Structures are given as C-alpha cells and as structure tokens.
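Lab meeting, action items carried over

1. Structure of the two-component assembly. Owner: GW. Status: complete.
Input record:
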Amino acid sequence: NAGVTQTPKFRILKIGQSMTLQCTQDMNHNYMYWYRQDPGMGLKLIYYSVGAGITDKGEVPNGYNVSRSTTEDFPLRLELAAPSQTSVYFCASSSSLQGDSYEQYFGPGTRLTVT
Amino acid sequence: QKEVEQNSGPLSVPEGAIASLNCTYSDRGSQSFFWYRQYSGKSPELIMFIYSNGDKEDGRFTAQLNKASQYVSLLIRDSQPSDSATYLCAVNRPSAGNNRKLIWGLGTSLAVNP
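Predicted assembly:
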C-alpha cells in the first residue's frame, strides 16, 4: 500500500493563478481531509469528505474548493491564488469501519508559495 | 481557553533521559486521544492512540490518560537524538458526530541532546 500520496511536492504560483493539489489514498478510507499548516499556527482544517460525493467546509475554506468523485481521490482547488495561501498542505484519510479509531493518516504534503 | 493545549517548548533533554510531553483538552466528551510526531519538513506520523484512562505502552513510548483531569501525556524513555521532533496532541471532536474530525494542539518541540 502506498497509503496517502500527494502531488506536487512543491509549487510556486503567481498571484491570481489557479492550481489543483492532488490527493489519492489506497486504503479504501471513506474519510478524507485537507489541512494547511503555517509556522507556529498548527494544523487548520480546510475541507473534509465523509465519502464519495459528500464534502463539507472546515475552519478555513475561503479561497479553496474540493470535489470527491471517487473514494480514492480528493483534489483541492485553489482559485485566484493569494500570498495568504502560501503554506504547507496536507491531505489525510481515516477509516470508517465501525469500531475503528479516529486516527488519521497523512500524505507527504505539498509546499506552496504564492508570489 | 484553547481546545487542546500543549507547551510549545522547546523541551530539551539529554540522550537516555525520559522526555515527558503534556496535553490538556477542554471538551469532557472527547473519547479518543492521539500523539503524532512531526519531523521538520515532514508530515505528521501517528505514534500512539489511547481511549481508556491509565497507561498504554508501546516500546519506548507510554501514553497516559486522565479523563477526570482532562489530561493526556506522552513519555519517551531512553530518549534518542532521532526523537528530536515536534509532537502533536490530537483529540476527537465529540460534536462532529460521524465526521471524525480531530482537534489539534500546536505541538511541543523536543530536542534530545547527545
């Protein structure tokens, strides 16, 4: 199992550009999450999904969009990139089996710089 | 009061010593507690989870939970320089229902000195 994979690893965007951060998991997890992590600020939840076709906003959704057409994939779309979106983005997934714990498994992250 | 609080550190211990990392949480309804390790420039990695009051041991790591005091800790015995990292405490959000969201602390930076 590859676990949770993310692409790209690094990206530099100009202000106003758009891009999609890709996230794929091969653990058949129903729950998936997008976080951003800024220095000293901890993990902030952007969006999450409880299954294919179901997504919802987290703490900091403005400027982002998501879709979940399959169990495996959960892409994050940045529209009109702004310097405030410079951050490290992590995708995570969690099992939905009854009795399973709530632990989340993380991808390696995407380091995004908007200039 | 923050929902999950950790001392930011840095916590500095000599090699071979016991490192003690602490975390308090505000929601008495929380049932699941997690410790993650994050090396600089890397993603968080699950070390341990605990659900019941008391101690849970895994190798050099022991998680301790006291629900009455709303306190969870992580002990690292025989600390090694490779344990130097930021340790994140996470707690389930009971009000999230079936959404399995976690509340994250800001992390404690640990430095193990050779």
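2. GW to write a short summary for the group page. Key points so far: The longest strand of chain A covers residues 42-51. Chain A touches chain B at residues 31, 33, 40-43, 45, 48, 50, 56, 58, 90, 94, 96, 101-109 (CB under 8 Å).
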